[in-house]
């Protein structure tokens, strides 16, 4: 009988990418969990779409029945601990599935976001369920696409100075998650995933300049000025949102807490990870005005 994996947040970045890797395989049945079925567009011979909400623990009990694996991630806000704890508790009621959970390789050194993640992970580890953590360094899609309009105009703004970041492509992370979900021997592992090198944002701008038909310059700003810019132009409504979703990550970059480089991607999927320049070449159309 094929394994059966529940993918929470099927419309989210990580969940959607994992489902794409698992579609139409004979060795696994995929249960995509979404809050709004109308927003989910993937189809596949092994795919079932279910509606549930991590903010409604009662809705999780039916969708966690009869699964062998569950992939858990949630939006970066104050509800991380509550949501991921609710999924683990529902799984315990329905059996002993292997929980694959997203954490991260950037060292947040006990900041508020890290405390929320660690509380959820501690609950998972004490649950008795088999578990694996997949911990990407800063993902290129979240780190760079949010600046696509600015980059198209020839500029990247940030606060990270000469801090180095081992950025990793989402496709590499998804390939690792799929490997963990469909093979044995991953229990109690924390897989830290990075690109092939740690780069500064200035070096990222240089890579954009080599690939795009226009130069891109990196502009380093103060933390206060950058946060104010996000409040004015990026749709954030509170300083707390800016801090937990953006600033705490870029602060970690500046302080050298994202410089980790590993060979874990190659060990797990048999090929090296994508570089920043390779990723830009693949996605260059979105950065051209």
Short description:
With 289 residues, the protein is an alpha/beta fold. It contains 12 helices and 9 strands. The chain has helices at 13-22, 57-63, 80-94, 112-125, 140-144, 148-152, 170-181, 201-211, 223-233, 239-254, 264-269, 276-283, and strands at residues 3-7, 28-34, 47-51, 69-72, 98-102, 131-136, 155-158, 190-193, 217-220.
Largest sheet: 7 strands, parallel
Instruction: Give the termini separation.
Output: 50 Å
Side-by-side strand order of the widest sheet = 3-2-1-4-5-6-8
In the CATH hierarchy, what is the class of the largest domain? Alpha Beta
By oligomeric state, this entry counts as single chain
The count of helical stretches stands at 12
CATH topology of the largest domain: Rossmann fold
Give the C-alpha Rg. Answer: 19 Å
DSSP strand content = 15-25%
What name goes with the CATH superfamily of the largest domain? Answer: NAD(P)-binding Rossmann-like Domain
Structural class: alpha/beta
Mean residue pLDDT: 95
Number of strands: 9
Q: Which residue ranges are poorly predicted, with pLDDT under 50 across at least 5 consecutive positions?
A: none
Broad shape: globular
CATH architecture of the largest domain: 3-Layer(aba) Sandwich
Question: How many structural domains does the protein architecture include?
Answer: 2
Order of helical and strand elements = EHEEHEHEHEHHEHEHEHHHH
Helix content range: 40-55%
Explain what you see.
- The termini are far apart.
- The model has no long low-confidence stretch (mean pLDDT 95).
- The protein has helices spanning 13-22, 57-63, 80-94, 112-125, 140-144, 148-152, 170-181, 201-211, 223-233, 239-254, 264-269, 276-283; strands at 3-7, 28-34, 47-51, 69-72, 98-102, 131-136, 155-158, 190-193, 217-220.
- Helix 4 (112-125) links the parallel strand 5 (98-102) and strand 6.
- The chain has 289 residues and is an alpha/beta fold.
- It has two domains: 3-136, NAD(P)-binding Rossmann-like Domain (Rossmann fold, 3-Layer(aba) Sandwich), CATH 3.40.50.720; 137-168 and 194-260 and 272-289, UDP-galactose 4-epimerase, domain 1, CATH 3.90.25.10.
- Helix 1 packs across helix 7 and helix 2 crosses helix 3 (80-94).
- Helices cover 42% and strands 15% of the residues.
């Amino acid at each position: 009988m094929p394994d059966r994996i529940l993918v929470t947040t099927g419309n989210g970045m990580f969940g959607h990418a994992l489902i794409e890797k698992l579609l139409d395989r004979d060795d696994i049945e995929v249960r995509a969990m979404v809050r709004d079925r109308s927003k989910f567009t993937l189809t596949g011979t092994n795919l079932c779409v279910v509606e549930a909400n991590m903010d409604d623990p009662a809705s999780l009990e039916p969708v966690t029945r009869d699964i062998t694996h569950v992939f858990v991630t949630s939006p970066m806000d104050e509800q991380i601990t509550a949501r991921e704890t609710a999924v683990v508790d529902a799984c315990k009621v329905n059996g002993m599935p292997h929980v694959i959970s997203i954490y991260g390789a950037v060292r947040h050194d006990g900041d508020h976001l890290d405390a929320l993640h660690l509380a959820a992970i501690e609950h998972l580890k004490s649950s008795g369920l088999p578990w694996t953590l997949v911990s990407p360094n800063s993902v290129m899609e979240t780190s760079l696409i949010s600046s696509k309009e600015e980059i198209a105009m020839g500029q990247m703004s940030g606060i990270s100075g000469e801090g180095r970041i081992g950025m990793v492509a989402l496709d590499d992370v998804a390939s690792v998650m799929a490997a963990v979900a469909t093979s044995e021997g991953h229990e109690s592992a924390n897989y830290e995933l990075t690109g092939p090198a740690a780069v500064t944002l200035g070096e990222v701008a240089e890579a954009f300049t080599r690939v795009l038909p226009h130069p891109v310059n990196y502009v380093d700003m103060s933390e206060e000025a950058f946060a104010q810019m996000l409040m004015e132009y990026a749709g954030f409504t509170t300083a707390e949102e800016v801090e937990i979703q953006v600033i705490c990550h870029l602060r970690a970059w500046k302080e050298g807490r994202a410089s980790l480089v590993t060979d874990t991607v190659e060990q797990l999927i048999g090929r090296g990870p994508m570089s920043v320049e390779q990723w830009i070449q693949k996605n260059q159309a979105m950065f051209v005005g």
